[in-house]
């Protein structure tokens, strides 16, 4: 058998060598493989993974996020610095250990990558609303990319490309379909409103132009007729004047100046009358025409105002309806948020109370633990003191040869017991004034006392009883002096102070 073989990897492959002389795993593009070593080739080509990630937004709306990720191991770049090369080699080594052995069963790698992507996507989507996800698709893609890359670093993998497609509705939850229908309906309604408003403006403008044209035409006609009447009246005046002058000139030749003057005056009066009648008729005709034109103008204005009011009322009603709908939605939203805020406040209050109760319980527990610890230390000190005293007494008893009484006397002397007892006894008798009373029973008292032993030996019971009775008076007297108590009357009475006994 050959001692060594030379192995070479393809451009998109690496050699992973383990065994004799290698502590961990050796990566190379070409190497000698000796006896006792194993060499495996693994591919570093990126692989496409296509998923349909099922996630849920902050409003608990489920959706499907189709995505295609191109993922492969990190490889050393040409011209990279030494520290970067070491990091990339470490990442490639992780890939060779953890992922490369699974490439024969690609489903394992697929499930691993899918699990990471689904987990990070769901966590990120749970913090965003559907509107934020839909409008910020680019930002959402970048966040997913960064989070997934952080997880893939521990396997030595890198994302070469990530393509996130448009969001798709989950069957039974047609959010995006309804959103598209809403947008289309809003656009259609806005178009209808715009068309109606443009039509209204066109009709109102046309009516305004038509009325203005008629007003200007009527005004020009009236001014033309007034000027014509004025010119006619002036012509008649001139004509009458010329005729009167000619008549005067002709009548001047006549002999009867008075008749000529009278005839001239009559004709002049007739002409004046005709001229005045013509002027009045012209003025009345102009006034009548002006009134008719004014009535027509007012009727047109009324029609124009009616159409304008209709259009305005329609626009106002439409705007008011939309405004009321928006206000209702805003009121519902504000009330909902107020209820959520109240619930959140109650929860925070309950948590604060619980925390306060826990703090009080912890404080009480610490105080009780401190007391218990103090008691334990006190008991331990007493036990140590007692043990020391016991050892001391045992050593002293052994030194005294086991003589217990000698040990007791020594301990009492050492502890000052005798001195303390003497002090107590001295304090007890201090200030006392003892009183001694002497009783006698006649002249034979001394003889009776001297013969007490003989009488006792004689065994006379009567004399013994008599001796007891003789002891009672001094006993009762002593009790009275010490305590102030008197004997009962049936036993007798004590003598008064100063009396002879």
The total strand number stands at 9
Number of helices: 11
CATH fold title of one domain: Tetrahydropterin Synthase, Chain A
Order of helices and strands: EEEEEEEHHHHEEHHHHHHH
**Structural class of the secondary elements?**
alpha+beta
CATH architecture call of one domain = 2-Layer Sandwich
Which percent bin holds the helix content? 55-70%
Mean pLDDT: 77
Amino- and carboxy-terminal Cα gap: 147 Å
Structural overview:
- A hairpin with a 6-residue loop joins strand 2 and strand 3.
- Strands 6, 7, 8 and 9 form a four-stranded antiparallel beta sheet that branches. The protein has a three-stranded antiparallel beta sheet with strand order 3-2-5, with no helix packed on it. Strands 1-4 form a two-stranded antiparallel sheet.
- It has eleven helices and nine strands.
- About 2% of the residues have low confidence.
- The longest helix has 143 residues.
- The protein is α+β, with helices and mostly antiparallel strands and 501 residues long.
- It is 68% helix and 12% strand.
- Helix 2 crosses helix 4 and helix 5 runs antiparallel to helix 6.
- Pfam families: Band_7.
- This is Flotillin-like.
- InterPro entries: Band_7, Band_7/SPFH_dom_sf, Flotillin_fam.
- It is found in: Cell membrane; Membrane, Caveola.
């Amino acid at each position: 058998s050959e001692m060594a073989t030379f192995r070479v990897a393809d451009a998109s492959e690496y050699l992973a060598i383990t065994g004799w002389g290698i502590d961990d795993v050796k990566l190379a593009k070409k190497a000698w493989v000796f006896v006792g070593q194993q060499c495996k080739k693994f591919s570093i080509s990126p692989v496409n993974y296509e998923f349909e990630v099922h996630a849920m937004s902050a409003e608990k709306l489920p959706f499907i996020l189709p995505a295609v990720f191109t993922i492969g191991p990190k490889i050393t770049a040409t011209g990279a610095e030494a520290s970067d090369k070491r990091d990339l080699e470490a990442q490639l080594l992780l890939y060779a250990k953890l992922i490369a052995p699974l490439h024969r069963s690609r489903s394992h790698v697929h499930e691993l990558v899918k699990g990471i992507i689904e987990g990070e996507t769901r966590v990120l989507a749970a913090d965003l609303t559907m509107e934020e996800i839909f409008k910020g698709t680019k930002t959402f893609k970048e966040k997913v990319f960064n989070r997934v890359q952080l997880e893939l670093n521990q396997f030595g993998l890198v994302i070469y490309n990530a393509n996130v497609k448009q969001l798709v509705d989950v069957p039974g939850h047609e959010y995006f379909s309804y959103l598209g229908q809403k947008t289309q309906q809003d656009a259609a309604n806005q178009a209808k409103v715009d068309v109606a408003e443009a039509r209204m403006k066109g009709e109102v403008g046309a009516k305004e132009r038509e009325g203005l044209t008629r007003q200007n035409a009527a005004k020009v006609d009236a001014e033309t007729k007034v000027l014509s009447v004025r010119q006619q009246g002036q012509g008649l005046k001139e004509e009458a004047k010329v005729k009167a002058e000619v008549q005067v000139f002709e009548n001047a030749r006549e002999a009867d100046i008075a008749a000529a003057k009278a005839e001239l005056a009559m004709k002049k009066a007739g002409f004046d009358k005709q001229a005045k009648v013509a002027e009045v008729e012209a003025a009345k005709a102009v006034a009548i025409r002006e009134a008719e034109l004014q009535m027509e103008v007012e009727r047109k204005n009324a029609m124009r105002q009616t159409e304008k009011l209709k259009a305005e009322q329609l626009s106002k009603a439409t705007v008011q309806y939309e405004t009321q709908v928006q206000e209702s939605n805003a009121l519902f939203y504000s009330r909902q948020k107020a209820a959520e805020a109240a619930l959140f406040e109650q929860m925070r209050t309950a948590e604060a109370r619980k925390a306060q109760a826990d703090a009080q319980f912890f404080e009480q527990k610490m105080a009780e633990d401190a007391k218990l610890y103090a008691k334990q230390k006190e008991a331990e000190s007493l036990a140590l003191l007692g043990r020391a005293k016991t050892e001391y007494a045992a050593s002293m008893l052994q030194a005294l040869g086991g003589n217990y009484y000698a040990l007791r006397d020594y301990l009492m002397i050492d502890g000052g017991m005798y001195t303390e007892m003497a002090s107590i006894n001295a304090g007890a008798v201090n200030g006392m004034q003892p009183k001694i009373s002497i009783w006698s029973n006649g002249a034979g008292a001394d003889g009776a006392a001297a013969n007490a032993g003989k009488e006792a030996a004689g065994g006379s019971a009567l004399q013994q009883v008599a001796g007891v009775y003789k002891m009672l008076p001094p006993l009762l007297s002593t009790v009275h002096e010490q305590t102030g108590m008197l004997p009962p009357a049936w036993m007798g009475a004590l003598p008064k102070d100063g009396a002879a006994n």
